[in-house]
Design goal:
Elements (H helix, E strand, L loop, with lengths): L8 H5 L7 E2 L20 H25 L3 E8 L5 H8 L8 E5 L5 H4 L5 H4 L8 E5 L8 H4 L1 H5 L12 H18 L2 E9 L2 H13 L9 H7 L2 H15 L6 E5 L3 H17 L10 H49 L7
Parallel strand pairs: 2-4, 2-5, 3-4, 5-6
Antiparallel strand pairs: 1-6
Helix pairs in contact: 2-12, 3-12
Length: 339
């Protein structure tokens, strides 16, 4: 794929989004999605798409901010070493950081545990005109908390409310929350970076063998890896119950990082493009004021030029007068007068 003009981009990108989009319009089974998919392209072609998406995203983000009507919430989930951080960094390379906010949700604080499970995420929602990026999110409450029941026990939920239906109830709460956001102008896109267990093993080994990556490794990662099957089951149940037209999931093949970035960037650009974002139009009365201001600024420049020319002319006149006096004094033998 060599032709990447922004006018053709939205149509071209569909083939990198639609096969991985889950919006509750068809049955879902996580095992049906290949982790090493490359979309029929090679890495060089993928890099071209990534660059074109960055350019287009930069333009769309500026219009999103200027229009100040919509906001965009992006949610990234995935197993350890799935490439969430690097995907965010790559896709948003070159986008104005003043229009984006990235939040990473880790172990909840004492204050957060004194609130409902959505509270800390709700406080970080993007304002109109801005892009909010959640690197992990409120979905941890139906993933890690489900895999580790001891965490739920620390959340101070009244015991009578902790029933066998708690996960279904949380799915319902999350779906209702996302529908509420959609109805109020927040576009919600969710990405599950689907990495294979074998690729995770290779990335863990890289972190151990390369000194520059040692800091990324945690012994806790190995402990969580042992629970791989339980996490995969939790992800499948979560995606199946929380995918919707208002807030679709994208099952991103993550074994090849470059293709994961193609899918993520294409989904974001395509969704923003469908909003038909435009720069605000200026009404006629303001255009009239703009003309007055433009004229005043131009006159200000012209006035400055006139003053400068007058000063130069005056200085030249003084210099000529001094030269004349000097010449006269040489002719009479008298000293030249000084001012």
């Amino acid at each position: 794929m060599r032709k990447t003009s922004s006018s053709l981009l939205p149509e071209q990108l569909k083939r990198y989004v639609e096969p991985f989009r889950v919006d509750d319009t068809r049955a879902f089974r996580l095992a049906s999605y290949k982790t090493a998919e490359r979309g029929g392209i090679d890495k060089d072609s993928g890099q071209e798409i990534i660059k074109a998406n960055r350019d287009r995203l930069s333009d769309l983000q500026e219009k999103l901010y200027a229009q100040d009507r919509w906001s965009l919430l992006l949610i990234f989930q995935g197993m350890d070493a799935a490439g969430k951080d690097s995907a965010i960094e790559s896709v948003f390379d070159g986008v104005n950081p003043q229009g984006c906010d990235v939040h990473s949700f880790k172990q909840p604080s004492t204050e957060e545990l004194d609130h409902d499970f959505m509270w800390r995420a709700a406080r970080r929602l993007p304002e109109r005109g801005r892009i909010g990026i959640f690197n992990r999110s409120y979905y941890e409450e139906v993933l890690v908390v489900r895999v580790h029941p001891e965490i739920l026990a620390k959340q101070k939920v009244p015991p009578k409310l902790v029933t066998k239906n708690i996960w279904r109830e949380r799915f319902e709460d999350i779906s209702a929350f996302e529908k509420y956001l959609a109805r109020n102008g927040t576009l919600v896109l969710k990405f599950f970076l689907n990495v294979s267990k074998e690729e995770q093993r290779r990335r863990f080994l890289d972190r151990l063998e390369e000194p520059a990556k040692n800091w990324k490794f945690s012994m806790g990662d190995v402990a969580e890896r042992k629970l791989w099957d339980r996490y995969q089951a939790a992800y499948q149940d979560m995606i199946r119950h929380t995918s919707s037209l208002d807030a679709p999931w994208h099952i991103v093949p993550a074994d090849h990082k470059w293709f994961a970035r193609v899918v993520v960037g294409s989904a974001i650009v395509g969704a923003l493009d469908r909003l038909d974002l435009r720069f605000p139009k200026v009404d006629k009365s303001e255009l009239g004021e703009f003309k007055k201001v433009r004229k005043a600024l131009q006159n200000e420049n012209n006035s400055a030029l006139r003053v400068k020319k007058a000063a130069v002319k005056h200085a030249a006149g003084e210099k000529s007068e001094v030269a004349s006096d000097s010449s006269a004094s040489r002719g009479t033998g008298r000293p030249a007068r000084t001012n």
